[in-house]
Amino acid sequence: MKRLTKDVCESDVVHVGVVEKVRAALPDEETLADVAELFKVFGDSTRTRILSCLFEAELCVCDIASLLGMTKSAVSHQLRILRQTKVVKYRKQGKEVYYSLDDDHISRIYKMALEHLSEDN
Amino acid sequence: MKRLTKDVCESDVVHVGVVEKVRAALPDEETLADVAELFKVFGDSTRTRILSCLFEAELCVCDIASLLGMTKSAVSHQLRILRQTKVVKYRKQGKEVYYSLDDDHISRIYKMALEHLSEDN
DNA sequence: ATAATAGTTGAATAGGTATTCAATCGTTCA
DNA sequence: TGAACGATTGAATACCTATTCAACTATTAT
């Protein structure tokens, strides 16, 4: 994804002082990658739609598929990603699997985004 | 990205009552698409790294390229996305273009994500 | 045991996207 | 004016990813 090359800016015009200060303050690469990873999960409208359903109620795969007008397969693939990233949890009951939000950080972040979008119209 | 198919779940086992309640409570598609769009911007580690630099100081393209070890071109491409989505703003001074964060919703959302990641270790 | 249904999974495909490369624009300075 | 540099841009490429399709598992009911 990222690769070093020649043209990295060897100029003398770089603001050395500021740059060094900023470099020292940066979080480590791993943390930044984790942040990006978390946001990537939210950065898909199918997953966003699934989450907005689960804000309202615990639902089975078939319910979600019905709400989104999508196949169970497509929904299940996305639920797998949400499961792996600990965004949703599930319980099995009979033939059905019920999904719900794993913790409320999720809805806080989501609601903050909605707020952001509405405030600057 | 999304497409209707036959297998959408025509089953009678769907929880009709709950589903209708949830459907009524859902935000409109456009809002959900906007939310996903916003998160998508954060869902790339290059952009996350750029933002974490801009949390610290206003910087020119060359500074950022230097900090990330990337070409000015690659950085500029990502800055364009951040500009278009109103996440960063810029001012031109001489030959250089200085970038900074557009509003502080951005850092609030970002910091909430960091918090989320650290809390559940 | 068999049929039916809920859900999952892997492979294939199609669409999306980040980086590179080369060309270009705009500004400054000699 | 022309050279140098910061920055942007478009096209090409290579990688990533969401959905489809078909096969499969597990559970329930007849």
As an assembly, this protein is: homodimer
Q: What's the story with the biggest beta sheet of chain A?
A: 3 strands, antiparallel
Question: What value does the Rg of chain A take, in angstroms?
Answer: 20 Å
Query: How much helicity do the residues of chain A have?
Result: 55-70%
Let me know the number of strands of chain A: 3
Per the principal axes of the C-alpha atoms, what is the gross shape of chain A? elongated
Low-pLDDT runs of 5+ residues of chain A are: 1-6
Mean pLDDT of chain A: 86
The helix/strand class of chain A is mainly alpha
How far apart, in Å, are the first and last alpha carbons of chain A? 34 Å
Biggest interface and residues each = A-B, 72 and 72 residues
Topology order of chain A in helix (H) and strand (E) letters = HHHEHHEEH
Biggest sheet, spatial arrangement of strands of chain A: 1-3-2
Tally the helices of chain A: 6
- Percent of residues of chain A in beta strands? 5-15%
